[in-house]
Amino acid sequence: MEQLPEDWQRGLVIVAHPDDIEYGAAAAVARWTRMGKDIRYVLVTSGEAGIAGMPPAQAGPLREAEEIASAAVVGVTEVEFLGHPDGRVREDLDLRRDLAAAIRRHRPEMVLLFNFGDTWAPGFVNSADHRAVGRAGLDAVSDAGNEWIFPELAELEPWSARYAAVAGPAATHAVDVADTVEAAVASLAEHRRYLEALSDEPVESQVRAIIDMTTGPKPGFPAERAVGFELYHFGG
């Protein structure tokens, strides 16, 4: 397994929900911000349907605040929420347009996306939102560089990223995160209220188990801790 290219300066992470980034990939983000790279986050929803017993009008602002605090732990200060409905994200032209616009606004060389396959592992179905956002996001990387697909975005100059990398089980490349695992732990722990609703286990125990699972060694990659990505090349 090869090292993910790091010959870029600005990265944009696109995910469906608050906490998606923190399930391991924040360790790579922490590495990159320590290297001086400019990393920004775009979240398609505010995660407002994610806490049982808490109405969306209350949960949305809470989860946005947790995400902003979580991002700050790993050196990210620009966090944008697009306002699509949590749990009901549609893979359609409206989503592609909104993501293409975000790519044009932030002008990344690297776009980071998350697993958009049907499953996480055999027998574990992936979220419909994850599938929609990942697939639309990959299309939007190309859309952002084409002036004719969404003419209504004419006020935003077309932009072509060089790479897209998808975090998930189909990894072709990896990033050594041995030095930033603890930053990832602290970043995920900022989602305290959300994690408390997921399990009766102490938040600290949940966080450590999640990070240990998602940043373990990768086959053929010489690092004790790593995050894996599937790499795509574009023309930027």
TrEMBL record:
GO biological process: glycoside metabolic process
UniProt-listed Pfam families: PIG-L
Matches recorded under InterPro entries: GlcNAc_PI_deacetylase-related, LmbE-like_dom_sf
Source species, domain of life: Bacteria
GO molecular function terms attached to this record: hydrolase activity, acting on carbon-nitrogen (but not peptide) bonds, in linear amides
Keyword vocabulary terms for this entry: Zinc
PANTHER family: LMBE FAMILY PROTEIN (PTHR12993:SF28), N-ACETYLGLUCOSAMINYL-PHOSPHATIDYLINOSITOL DE-N-ACETYLASE-RELATED (PTHR12993)
Protein name: PIG-L family deacetylase
Organism this protein belongs to: Nocardia bovistercoris
